[in-house]
Amino acid sequence: MFSTENHYEVVTFSIGDTKAGTKMGKLQLKDIENEEILNCILWEEALNRMDSKLFRSGNILRIVSGSFNEKFNNCLVSALELIKEAKTGLDVTQRTEVYGILEGYINKIKDEKLKNFVSQIYSENKESLLIAPGAKLMHHNYIGGLIVHISECLKYADANIDVFFQRVNRDEVYAACLLHDIGKIFEYTVDLESGLIDYNEDFRKEWRTHSQYGFSICMNAGFKRIARMIAAHHARADWGAIIDLSEKDLEPILYLVHHIDDLSAKFGKINVAMLD
Prior knowledge:
Blueprint: E1 7-17, E2 23-31, E3 37-43, H1 44-49, E4 60-68, E5 74-84, H2 92-108, H3 112-124, H4 126-131, H5 145-161, H6 170-179, H7 184-187, E6 188-190, E7 197-199, H8 201-206, H9 210-220, H10 224-232, H11 253-267
Parallel strand pairs: 3-5
Antiparallel strand pairs: 1-2, 1-4, 2-3, 4-5, 6-7
């Protein structure tokens, strides 16, 4: 049973607007003893009393004051105590090391035009890539999470390409892995002090998803098959895919990056708590 004596891990946190025009926080916590989920609401008055660092994914908290419902799976929270602070993500040395892995894969691309295309995008956006999260909630949601996710995708690709060598262009798979989430450097914002991640509303006004961004830059550069691989990597239109993999007679290559991306999202470090 949930109580104010339990310790909880922060799973997700977001702030929205109420119908009255005030702010409301939605906080999802996981009981570290039994892994049951507790959904919490914080009204604006409570939010104003709390440091935003409290809500970092992976933090361990205690509910000091709150009103639970009868089933003890929802709580209106008015006060929280930080028990253990989670890491915000990779440190500078770790980020540099992982970025070096990505540069190594860029250099493996034999097609000079494609290599130069990917290399230029990375060099122009290096600072953003080094800190970008892999997602807001679902996976790799910490500072440096995006490059960890991309490196995992590349390693999964290496483990599978040789099996399909007769039907797969290694250069194109590497490029698709390197660029499939490049739009996330613009789609998300991350506070380097608190580690909190949010959506960049300016990006969302101009682009449907980060997939659309990656698809567009590859199409404009003439790398149409890579663009299609990126367009399909979310698999379903309602998940943000431009090409839905339920369509008939698609090229087999379109499925590869989706499955690689999905494996990393499911088996990679989900949040900062798993970096310890």
